[in-house]
Amino acid sequence: MNIALIGAGNVAWHLAQAFTKAGHKVVTVYSRTATQRDELLQLLPNARATEKTDFTNLAVDVVVLAVPDAAIAGVAAQLQVKPGTVVVHTSGSQPLALLQSITGAKIGVFYPLQTFSKQKALDLKLVPFLVEAEDEATLDQLTQLAQSISNQVQQVNSEARKQLHLAAVFACNFTNHLLGISHQLLQNAGLPHTLLQPLIQETIAKAALYPPFEVQTGPASRHDATTIQAHLQMLEQQPVFQELYLKLTQSIQAQSLAK
Amino acid sequence: MNIALIGAGNVAWHLAQAFTKAGHKVVTVYSRTATQRDELLQLLPNARATEKTDFTNLAVDVVVLAVPDAAIAGVAAQLQVKPGTVVVHTSGSQPLALLQSITGAKIGVFYPLQTFSKQKALDLKLVPFLVEAEDEATLDQLTQLAQSISNQVQQVNSEARKQLHLAAVFACNFTNHLLGISHQLLQNAGLPHTLLQPLIQETIAKAALYPPFEVQTGPASRHDATTIQAHLQMLEQQPVFQELYLKLTQSIQAQSLAK
Predict the structure, then answer these.
(1) Residues B74, B116: one domain?
(2) With bands split at pLDDT 50, 70 and 90, how would you rate the model's confidence at B256?
(3) Residue B259 has what pLDDT?
(4) What pLDDT is attached to residue A177?
(5) Domain boundary among B92, B124, B156
(6) What's the mean pLDDT when you consider all of chain A?
(7) Which A-chain residues 193-222 have CB contacts (< 8 A) with chain B?
(8) Core vs surface per residue B219-246: b (16+ CB within 10 A) or e
């Protein structure tokens, strides 16, 4: 397929290379950040920069908006395409309907469920892609495009995708924050942060094998009030972390009551 | 070394096998749960059960208390050993001093920093062992014993071990709870829980490579009030999780202000 990319950030960076590798052709890249765009174009010998969002004169099958969530509506308002062109965004949290203003486009969502950074190579084959479209033909087309770069393609509507995004915030963003707190506590104690790695790995491995609520361990789940009090006291100087410790403990205990 | 085990739970189960494999001799096992003890003894052809905690007539170099935290003081109060016998507990959160009541013993801590279950095989070589003792000779002895079964041995005092345990509660117990919430949200949306696995793996991998606070992503860190409000509303029916979402968001934002 002939693909136009809008955006030259982390997602565009990984998608462009995967599309090219799969035999598709990235024909043009639009980005408000010219330096990022030109960096990306160095990896794409057949692609050209464009300064306009009028794509009506280009032979493009799919336009991929790989821009921040907050920028999608603005880009959609400016974008002009040939009737029948597929236009997708790549956001986990934004509805398909955000693209409805684009005249003549067949709209869809093409969401790679992964966290991207340019520095870190990723095997997109293992990344789940969630696709959505208004009509069956477009959905098929997007499913094929996704399957050409990934082995994990799912058709998921906007409502379920919203739930999934919320779940991802808990499992990834919030988990990263807890790992950050742990990292800081180790640092304060003069201990190497690598010390907890095997335990973290095992925790994640276990939570993939069993429902996590059923394998919950620790002072909260065994209602060990002495240890909990001692920990709260150790966090006296970090009231935000102390409050978080308390709420997480309460949530674990509420969960064990619910069982 | 000749080793006596007190306890026949998950930790004892893994330690006994590792000691035997490393050429040590587990000579006796004491446990209040006879069925667990006898199960463990089936793996240890040279060990015998004992019903008493008077070990003064046994040729034992090290007595390992692999019992729940709350049981350590009780066992220590009953235990009798030959003068000079090394006695250790295996707890991450309990101080060395808990063993001070044991007459004539050289006391120490022998803490495997991992979560154990009998069903799941573990390579102890990769598990960090934290050792502590009151005197240098005992510390050397425990370090050697630990090094015979693990490649990751650290000498850590009770104060640092307490900090480490608190860090582990955040990185593992609390993380598991967040994974449980995520698991439940996916289930509610009719989505397979495997969908988030690659993202979780990548989150953990990134947090091992970079300080987690520096690679924090998500609606909280980008101060995306619209998404945060939408998520809070989606959690309306689960007030405990809603509160947790709010506190975690606030903690992430407080952290980014602190930078």
Answers:
(1) yes
(2) confident
(3) 59
(4) 98
(5) B156
(6) 94
(7) 194-204, 206-208, 211-213, 215-221
(8) bbbeebeebbeebbebbeebebbbebbb
